[in-house]
Design goal:
Strand 3 and strand 4 form a beta hairpin. Strands 1, 2, 3, 4, 5, 6, 7, 8, 9, 10, 11 and 12 form a 12-stranded antiparallel beta sheet that branches. The longest helix is centred in the C-terminal third of the chain and has 9 residues. The protein starts with a helix and ends with a helix. The chain is mainly beta.
């Protein structure tokens, strides 16, 4: 599926890229504003399975910088709403199940950027949330010449680009590298091989 290949993005472990995207900006401070959010989507070992594995840096109250990861099961939405670029995500996080619906709102044809929107709920915690993300290869916002197209994609979520905040992507501390994975079940970025 082309939309899933867009999510796989720039993943190419042979070139040291054990992630597909980095978050450049987001609208939900509780979710997107952690530093260095490496985004990885990959095919699972069982037929038809797809996974989302974000890795992000958290600063503890005592100032320590700690890497965190999550593993979301991803299912393509089927039926009348099952258009490309629409998925249901689920994750067990500290004993609470969160369920999210993710929408692919736009992507550059050369994979310079990607815009996603999600709505989610952690029912047992009585929490509902939503957010919009701009993802890029390096975690930097794209060139200003791309702003109009990104604004249009963000607008599909009923939001404005100014509602998103840039994510902090400082240089990685060599003494504390991110624990990125490279699943053998996911080939290197299929769309980049076509370019």
């Amino acid at each position: 599926d082309v939309s899933e290949n867009i999510l796989v993005g720039h993943f190419d472990p042979s070139k040291g890229r054990r992630h597909g995207w980095l978050v450049a900006a987001g609208s939900n401070p509780a979710y997107e504003q952690f530093a260095l959010q490496y985004q990885l989507w990959y095919q699972g070992s069982a037929k038809g399975t797809f996974w989302y594995h974000p890795t992000f840096l958290v600063e503890a109250l005592d100032g320590r910088k700690i890497w965190r990861t999550r593993d979301y099961r991803v299912r393509r939405v089927k039926g009348p709403a099952g258009r490309p670029g629409l998925w249901d995500f689920s994750v067990l996080d500290n004993g609470i199940i969160s369920e999210e619906r993710w929408h692919l709102l736009g992507a550059d044809e050369n994979l310079k950027w990607l815009v996603l929107f999600y709505v989610g709920a952690a029912r047992k915690a009585g929490l509902a949330y939503r957010g919009c993300l701009v993802l890029t290869r390096d975690g930097e916002m794209p060139d200003p010449s791309e702003a109009e197209r990104i604004e249009e994609a963000v607008g599909r979520a009923g939001m404005r680009l100014w509602e998103l905040e840039a994510t902090s992507n400082p240089p990685v501390d060599p003494a504390n590298p991110p624990p990125l994975i490279a699943p053998e079940t996911q080939p290197a970025a299929p769309l980049l091989a076509l370019a």
